[in-house]
Amino acid sequence: MNIDFTNLGFQYHKTDFNYISYYKSGAWDEGVLRSEDTLTISCFSTALHYAQQAFEGLKAYRRKDGRMQLFRPYENAARFRESCKRLLIPEISDELFISAVKKVVKANLDFVPPYGTFSTLYVRPYVIGVGNNLGVRPASEYVFGVVCSPVGSYFKNGLSPVKFIVTDYDRAAPNGTGKQKVGGNYAASLYPNYLAHQEGYADCIYLDPTTHTKIDEVGSANFFGITKDNCFVTPKSSSILSSITKRSLMVIARDFMNMCVVEKEVYIDKLDEFTEVGACGTAAVITPISGIMNHEKFHAFSSDNVVGPVTKKLYDYLIGIQFGDILSPDGWLEIIE
Fold first, then answer.
1. What are phi and psi for residue 38, nearest 5 degrees?
2. Does domain 5-151 have CATH number 3.30.470.10?
3. Which end of the chain is more exposed for a tag (fewer CB within 10 A), N or C?
4. Quick one: CA dihedral 258, 264, 268, 269, positive or negative?
């Protein structure tokens, strides 16, 4: 292994082990750790043709005392169950989910970046429909796996302000799968993301698919804004993925920083309500947004290299909890001995 943990981006580095379990004849097997990072599946698998698959993303953090911890993994397990339910995938219990994640982290101790690098071990549980299937119906066999990789910042400049552009494309339909963490939502985002990069922006902002007047998501992350009267505001919509990071920031803003917290419809033509805005998620953590281009009209929030004071404080609280330096609310951390 030859990895510079201080200069990691968000890309794959092969680790020693991953976990895999198979569902056949109505039950999951015990699962095993293995070293190969490939799968052999039927060409007729429902994951390939009908996108019957779901995944999660969480991180293992190295504490100052050398131990490792997971951040709110039971929230990931619950969201995974909801995604599976929506796609008619057999339930994966919280116990199986957490056990598999812990096994993978313990089997890859050398790949958990040292404390102080601010890098982490990204852990991705996934489930796919497999087997010989032809019609549009749920599979009878499934694969549940957990893979991992050490990662740094999702956006290459880390906690530095970036610019976003509003897109006319939709990432999810009304009453569709926007609330679930499933691959189809991300496939729909690839082309808009490509166009945003071509125009020099970090990513795009998706508006509500019904009226195209309200902010839904920012790239593959959730949106938040800080108002002039120091209120944390985040969009409310039936097509937004329920971000664990966003919900954690809402608690931090309310309980640690004495801010008011509001979930409401956020109109794209009302950006002047905010003094700071950002994107948040497991991969991105917090990404400050310095400006938004909305159909030839650019709205600036801050300079290109200055992070807003409230956003910075939210970030410091969040990563302080995630790395074990700040006392967390009950039940947020799972220590891996």
1. -130, 160
2. yes
3. C
4. negative
